[in-house]
Amino acid sequence: STPQPPRRGLFIALEGLDRAGKSTQIARLHDQLGGPSRTTLLKFPDRTTPIGKLLHSYLTSPQEQLDDRAVHLLFAANRWEVAARIRREVEQEGRIVLADRYAWSGVAYSRAKGLPLSWLFSPELGLPLPDLTLFLSLDPAVAAQRGGYGEERYEESGMQRRVRKSFGEVARVVSGSGANWRELDAGRGGVEEVWEMVWGAVRGVVDGERRQALNEIDV
Ligand code: NYM
Ligand code: MG
């Protein structure tokens, strides 16, 4: 008889403002879920690819001029570069893929520059849909107190406030489309308290039922 593929894995995204604690929590999830032998940790933007190198240069050189729509398409293209890999690892290899930011950051950050929401979603349509998105919700004023922002483009309070508002719009559209979007209050307590919330939400989907194929983003 033909060999059965393993039970499919999972695709989980962490989202939030800069300094919301995503990287800390996702590193912990990676450990808890078995480390590199069972879990793949992705970060968007992936700055190692040719497109990612362009994005890195744009983010770190605030004097660089690039059209807002062109930037948006580059961020989306940087996800399409790994879309097939996400599908293969989850569906064929039974792995858990964790993403530190995803399409939702793409829409929220560009939306904060005033571009229309429907235009912003279009290059993300068809990408693998996460089984769960955890949005680490944090007041931008609290985020700013956490050791201050770095030097990159977008890391200033006016932009962060607009992004916070845009994430609210994204959350409505994405949850309205039936996707699994969970908002966690990342300002309630420290790393341990947030970890309890993160792990509680992830444990639910790890144990849950799922179809073999990942869904597609379709809002
Ligand atoms: N960012 C990230 C976008 O503007 N669009 C996207 O699609 C993604 C994935 O890049 N300030 C922004 C948000 C961040 C910046 O990400 C760099 P990070 O997680 O700070 O390295
Ligand atoms: Mg950052």
TrEMBL record:
Q: What is its EC number?
A: 2.7.4.9
A single GO cellular-component term from the record reads: nucleus
Tell me which domain of life the UniProt entry assigns to the organism this sequence originates from: Eukaryota
UniProt keywords, alphabetically: ATP-binding, Kinase, Nucleotide biosynthesis, Nucleotide-binding, Transferase
Please give the Gene Ontology molecular function terms for this protein: ATP binding; dTMP kinase activity; nucleoside diphosphate kinase activity
| Organism expressing this protein natively | Jaminaea rosea
Q: Which family does it belong to?
A: Belongs to the thymidylate kinase family.
Record bears the keyword ATP-binding: yes
GO biological process, alphabetically ordered: dTDP biosynthetic process; dTTP biosynthetic process; dUDP biosynthetic process
Q: Which residues form the Thymidylate kinase-like domain?
A: 14-196
Its protein name is: dTMP kinase
